[in-house]
Design brief:
alpha/beta; D-Maltodextrin-Binding Protein, domain 2; five-stranded mixed beta sheet; 18 helices; 12 strands
Length: about 425
Amino acid sequence: MRKTSRFVIWSLVVLTLLAGFSGIAGAGPNKAVAGKGLVKGEITVWGWNIAASGLKDTVASFNKKYPDVKVNVVDIGRLDLYDKVTTALAAGVVLPDVIQIESDHMAVYTEQFPNGFYDLTAVASKYVKDFDPSKWAQSRVGGKIRSIPWDSGPTGLFYRADYFAQAGINPDEIKTWDDMVEAGKKIEKTFGDKVKLLNIDWTGDDALYRMMMNQAGAFYFNEKGEVALGSDTSIKIARIIKSLKPYSFNTAGSWDTTVTATKNGAVASIPFGVWYSGTIMDQAPELKGKWRVMLLPALTGGGNRASNLGGSTLVIPATAKNPEAAWRFVENALATTQGQMVMLKKWGLFPSYLPTYEDSFFREKQEFFGNQPIFAIFAGEVKDIPAVNYTGDFSKAHQYVINALTQLLTQDADPEAVMRKAAKDVAAATGRKLAAR
């Protein structure tokens, strides 16, 4: 996680330096896809890992509609992709026709290169009502649609039903994070140090903080782009996280540590995005029937329990050679139930496209999770996920928050003090104003 953050921060520095040169892609006129004309020729699509694999599986249905288009999907690797996109946008170099960009990275590019991606407003406006509403905050820039939401990351609390039962914890009675603290005491009393209540990254990432902030409709920045890390909400969340520390284990920025704890039974619950369901099933098949899912606890009684963690979009660079065919590919992959469902069923990519939730798959009971229809649970919360403002300074702020939480959890620092300092540091680093408390 930390390596990723440093990479993105470096990319931002490169963006800022290169944006001063003439000829950059984003400095040109606004280019819009019309959605007209013959769809033929060849397109190249960049993605990484299972996302690239998922896109490859949509090519067959696309070619049934558009047989005269050859599609090349390239798994380029996440960091390599961002490096190449950053350099190409700055230099005005031709990019592939379709590119995967994570939702929280969109503003990094659109603020520096406002016309670096095709304007899809004319062809995509009809689909606005059909996508996760929280995702348009990243895909729309200045009233123009610059990307199409792909997958969403509705969150939940994955928990071991057998552990909860042994500790006398009724999951239906966990309504708030304060209730989770009480559950932590019961887990500790029952299992000692062998099992911790949940995973928290003390030093490498701030995923839990972001999930809680999103629940509250808040984030690093407010809707005006002002730094909101020193807000009362942010400080309250820092206090909650600190109260959970005695009942957590430190993942220390390591994905493998979380997966290992899941597999060897060292953790009783894991707050994460829907995508972690596939990891549990793949990495710990022997635990079939022992895991369950519930919505995240609320910050206060009766509060919002919906949040998002993760998700990507697809863009068409302004230098794309075949934008019309590129749009049709994006449309088929992301704005059809057929395209989205093949990626969900085979690769676990949870769709932002709302009509897919009517598919019977979402109502199917998942044997691994004690016959819970877990995908219906996640789909049901999407409408309640608040939209947040990432801004182009998300990656810069991210590292300051990680540093603040590290002090909070490893040095017993005061929650208010560390979050107020983080807010001032981010404001100084970005030139943004501090939000009112």
